[in-house]
Amino acid sequence: MTQATFNFAPRGKRADIAAARGGRPVRGQATQVRGDEAVDPGDVLGFDYARFGMVPPAPCLWPGHPIREGWERGRRLMTRRTRPATLAVTRWLALRLAAWQRGEAFDDHQITPQVLRSLEVATHCPVTGRALGNDAVVVPADVQRGWVAGNLMLASPAIADRWLAIDWAIAKDALARAEADPDESADGLPLRHWRRIVALKSLATPLPHGEAARIPLLVLPPNRLRLVNPIQELQAVLTLQLSVPGWGQRARTVADSLPQALRNEFNLFFNSLLAQALRQGHGGERPDMRDALAAAWGDEVVMRRWGRFAALVDAGLAGTLVERLTRDPMPGLVMVRHGEAAVREKLAA
Fold first, then answer.
1. Does the pTM of the predicted model rise above 0.90?
2. Contacts of 206 (CB under 8 A, 6+ apart)
3. Domains in the chain, number
């Protein structure tokens, strides 16, 4: 089994995929060692605040606080030069501080400001659809996996405030209640938001093959999010074929690469998805093609034809098809696949 990470490069340039290829194994925020001396991770965090010329929050500046001690040590050693505190650096320090205060694992070597900067490709909240500003918050897609590379995305503050309390079971239950009474909100959120939340959670949650195949791709994978279900990897790869120029030739190539028994069902599904995406909006209100493709997955015909196609594809075949379809890169998109052993190592660490 492999897992895929999609990297969307802005302005048509290929994304830097170094961080997506792994990094050091995840370690918890256990006590670190400097020479023969044990160092509290709060001290290391405080040192990094000083390294970027920032002041830790006031509650961390009481005498004897580990973060203050690390901050003062850093100020003594870096009196001449500090590194620029970009938005990504600010988010990085804030995430580490929050994780440290909650006693959660956070590997500051695997999750770096560069990794967080790559998330800024997202311009709108994947749940609400509203434009993201500098107050956007980094959250883990799968709360149980926590702060690991391939499990992060940006969300609006209102959604982020609730996100950590929503796991897969809670999301599914809320969606069921919202669908039973579409005119009423479920736990304060409308039906359309719960549908997107379930779509996002499913991408990062290991699910039975059949269950994953029944979930509409109402949100395309956020940048660098690692997909864990092979059928959803295939769902995303086929959808993204339509997101960049040259999709007509690629569609013919895809069809030719499929086993004969799948070609007819693929063509029916693919043409339905394209037609529904092109119907989204009109005139100056026409959305970006990626947004239109995500919206197209809400169509019953698209889902019915996808279901017929997916019923002929097991997890092994889905993985094989994804490998085959991604050998030739698409403009502005890089997909990195992670072997099963590496994935197990990262999840177990």
1. no
2. 228, 229
3. 2
